[in-house]
Amino acid sequence: MGFDSIVLNYDSPSMKRQGSSFHDGHKVINDPIHGHIKLDNSTVEFIDTVQFQRLRDLKQLGAAYFVFPGGSHNRFEHSIGVSHLAGTLIERFANEQPELGIREDEIRGVKLAGLCHDLGHGPFSHVFDNEFMPNARPGFTWTHEQASEMMLEYLIDDNQIDIDKDNTNLIKDLIAGTPRAQSKYHDRGFLFDIVANKTNSVDVDKFDYIERDAQNLGLRSSYDAKRLLLYCRVVNNEICYHHKEVYNLYEMFHTRYSLFKRIYTHRVGKAIELMITDALLAADPYMNIASAVDSPCDYLNLTDDILREIERSQTDELAPARHIMKRLRKRQLYKFVDEILVPPHLLDKITTGVITAQEIVTHQNTNDKLHIDDVIVSKGKVNYAMQDRNPVDSIRFFSKHNDNESFTIPKNHVSYMIPSQFQEVVIRVFARDPCKVDAIQRAFRRALQKVCGFVETPPLDKSIHHHHQH
C-alpha cells in the first residue's frame, strides 16, 4: 500500500474524480501546522471553486516574502487551517456543553466563516488595502472585509451552492465578528467569538497565523495555541478561559507583537511595500487595477501575479511601472533614512500630518536639490491587537471550582513585568533615490527639531546614523 493512499495532500481541485475521498465522505489533508485535517463535504464544496482557489496566489505575508525566504506560504492553507480550528472548537463546545444547544447550521456556518474570512484580500493584502487603494481612489472607502462578502456571494451564486440567505448572512456576520440586529443569531454571542473576536481579539484566525507564520519563518514560538483551544468554555454566552491560561494569553499577544515588530513591519519589507505601491499606482491608469474591486469577476483575477503581469507587459504606458519592478528585482530598493519611535506624550504633536514629505524638503540645505518625490513618510503602529488597550482586560476567565461564573483578572495579579503601554507608533522616512539618504536625514531631523522644540533630538541621535550603508 503506497504512502499516497494514506496521506492525501490537497493539491488538486479534481480530487473528487480521483476517488480519494475518505470513509464517511470526508477528505483528509495533511497540513504542516495541524497535521491531518478532516474536511467535510460542504467545506470541500467551497474549496473546490475558482473563488477559493484564488487564495493560492496571495502570499500570507505579502511583501515580507521578499525579505524572509521562508514566508512563501499562501492564504489558501491559512484559510483551511482557520476552518479546521473553528470547527474543532465549536464541535468540542457542542459535545462538552450540550446545554448550549449548538445546531448543525451553526457548526457549518462557523467552519465556512473560518474558511472564507480572507476571500476578499487583494494583492499583497495590506499594501493593497492601506496604501494602494486610498491613493488610487481617494475618498472611496473600501476594505478587504467588504470584498470578502462580495466574493462569498459570488462563490455561492457562481457554483450554485445550496445555502439559504439566513445561513449566508450568518457566515458574513461570523466573519465580521458581530451579528446583524435582525438576525436570529443575535443572542448567540459566543459563536461570534470564534473566527473574528471583536471583544478581546482572541480568535482562531490568530491561533493559525501566529503559529503558521512563526513556523514558516523558522522562529520558535513560546506560546501554545493548542492549550488555549482546550482550556476554554462558554460562560454567559461568551468564550472564557481557564484562569491558569492568563499568562499564556499575554504570551500570545506578545508573540503577535514580536512578529509585527520583527517581520511584518521590517524596514526593508516596508521599503519594498512602498515600491510595490508605486508600481501599482503607475500601472493603474492603464490596467484599471483599482476598479477591479467593483466587480467580483474582475477581482477574481487580481492576485499577487499582477506584478508579473506588469513585468511581462511591453506597452510604453507600463514602462514606469516596469522600471520600478526591475529595481525591485535587482535589489535597488528605496532606502530607509530614519525613524522616530514617538514618545506617548508627543503622539498628538509628532504626526504624519505635521512631518510630511513637503515639510522635510523645506528643511533641506541650499544645494541638496531635494524634491518632494524623493521623500516618503510612513507611519506604523504595532500593538497588542486592540489599539492602545490591554486586550487581556477584556478576556473573562473561569476557575475549576466554578466553571459557570466568569471574572476578569487584573494585570497586577499576573505579573509586574507586563507592559504598561500596549501600542507604539513609529514614523519612518524613506528615500526613493539612495544617493539622497544623507540630505533627507539632515532635513528630517531639522523638521523634527522644529516640531519637538528640542535643541537636540535624543530619540534619534543614538539611533541609526549609518543604516543606509547596510
What is the percent of helical residues?
Answer: 40-55%
The CATH architecture of the largest domain is Orthogonal Bundle
- Tell me the name of the CATH class of the largest domain: Mainly Alpha
The major pleated sheet works out as: 4 strands, mixed
The low-confidence parts are 1-8, 10-22, 460-470
At the fold tier of CATH, the topology name of the largest domain is Hypothetical protein af1432
CATH superfamily of the largest domain: Hypothetical protein af1432
Q: What is the global morphology? A: globular
Structural class: alpha+beta
Computed over alpha carbons, the radius of gyration is 24 Å
Gap from first CA to last CA:
54 Å
Tell me the series of helices and strands, N- to C-terminal: EEHHHHHHHHHEEHHHHHEHEEEEHH
GO molecular function: dGTPase activity
Organism: Hesseltinella vesiculosa
Keywords: Hydrolase
Domain HD: 75-210
Task: Considering the chains and any ligands shown, give keywords for the structure.
470 residues; alpha+beta; Hypothetical protein af1432; Alpha-Beta Plaits; 2 domains; three-stranded antiparallel sheet; 9 strands; globular; disordered N terminus; disordered C terminus
Give the helices and strands, then pairings.
Elements: E1 27-31, E2 35-39, H1 41-47, H2 50-53, H3 75-96, H4 104-116, H5 126-136, H6 144-158, H7 165-176, H8 204-217, H9 225-230, E3 232-235, E4 238-242, H10 246-264, H11 267-287, H12 296-300, H13 306-312, H14 319-329, E5 335-341, H15 357-362, E6 375-383, E7 397-399, E8 402-407, E9 423-431, H16 437-452, H17 458-461
Parallel strand pairs: 4-7
Antiparallel strand pairs: 1-2, 3-4, 5-9, 6-9, 7-8
Helix pairs in contact: 1-4, 3-4, 3-8, 4-7, 5-11, 6-7, 8-10, 11-14
